[in-house]
Amino acid sequence: MPEGTAETRAPAPPAARLRCAQPLVGRYLRSAAEPGAVPVSIPPPTGPRPQPYDPADPPAGAGGPGHRPLPAPSPFAPPGSPEPPPASERSPSVEPPAAPTPTEDAAPTDEAASPPAVRSPFAPPGTPEPPAGDAPAHPAPYGPPGHYGTPHSYGTPHPYGTSDPYGTPVPYGYPGPRPPAPVNGFAVASLSFGLLMFCLPLVGLVLGLIALWQIPRRGQGGRGMAITGSVLSGVGVAVWTLLFATGALSAVWDGFRDGLRDTTVHSLRVGECFIAPDGMGVWSYASYPAACEEKHHGEVFARIDLPDGPYPGDAELGRRAVAECYAHRYAYVVDVWTVPDNVDVYHVSPSRESWRYGDREIVCAFGDNDPQALLTGSLRRDKSTLNADQIVFLEAERLSEQAVDRWPDGDPQDNLTGHQKWAEDITAALDEETGMLREHTWPAAAARPVADFVADLEEARAAWARAAEAEDADTYDEHYSEAMALPALESAITAREALGLSTGSPS
Fold first, then answer.
1. In this structure, what DSSP letter does residue 94 have?
2. Cα separation of 167 and 164, whole Å?
3. Cα–Cα distance between 343 and 280 in angstroms, integer?
4. C-alpha torsion sign, points 21, 26, 32, 36
5. Global pTM?
6. Where would I find the beta strands (DSSP E) of 325-445?
7. pLDDT tens digits for 39-49?
8. Distance CA 318, CA 349 (A)
9. pLDDT digits over 438-458, tens only?
């Protein structure tokens, strides 16, 4: 090509021009920067240009050349959003505009012009535009917006409450409160027994310890109740142990037993005198202690415990009470002859009701023959006031007196066997009594009176022996009268007088 001649090129097709637009611009800029370069002219682009959207155009689908139906609006567009233009107008196939022709005033550069800065669609209002040529700090997370069109279908949404591939939806709101832990049954039982600490304290203590062992392992409640029940039960066990160790439980039981009985006489002790406001006839119902030096109605001399078993009956219990009280008076009064003639023996025995509650005690007391009469002074006499001769004589005499006191029930005609046994016991007692009196060495003043008394006792022994062998009631009565008529009582008074003992007839 001749020097200085401008090069003329045929216009490129539209597609080729799109591909070559950027290289041409670059080459043009570089050639313009070289010294002596000749500017290259680039013809303007040819072809149809995109027309702006005209609202007056026929609606989509109305027909006519060059018109397409409008796409359906997006179901996710907010209310009031304008409908998008047709695809032909949104994305026309246009050629890029030709690069501007450089002028002499333009300063040539070696590099292409920087693209304009794009404001991020996610920037908050008021954010300044980034400077030209700077790349955005962060790339657009979703890329350039695509063509408008029918949105992608995600399937029919599942209504609330129905199953779907992701599981059953949780209803709106916060979950409810956690239910309380169940209470341990042993803890409740331990607290119950602990409140009744004096009934079964050991049971409450064991249940409480079991509950404390189970609660942490089972995640149950009731720890406070278990601790309270164990503590109260432990206190009850300690109290019971103290009562057993000190003997106080026996005293508590005696007081409780006396409270159950229908009389207050059981609160009296042996040796105490008492006042019975209604007299000795009903002294078991109301009695209270009094000084023996002052006037009183009675004096307690024995308390006798009976064996356990079924209630023996009123008659049998009364008979046994009389025999026991007369036998025990010798332990309180060594010489029964010192007891005045007007003094008799009274007793209180258990009733059928008190026997059911554990009453097994007989109370014996001295009182006047007249239930309303009063006594003065104590009747108690012990061995400390007697010498050795007196004690031997009284102990020998007591053998026959105790045998005589065991009087059988009924008459010989009704109970001959019982009376024969009684006569046999008296005979044995007289044998033992006479033997003690013969073996002892008596003072000179008492030797003869005692010897006479022994001779009368031997005659009485022979009469009682014949009564024990009687074949019928009449024969028994005959020998019984013979024994009672013997002068043993007169000789006994003489011997007692010689020994310095009381000569009053025994009560």
1. -
2. 6
3. 12
4. negative
5. 0.43
6. 343-348, 361-368
7. 555 555 565 56
8. 7
9. 999 999 999 999 999 999 999
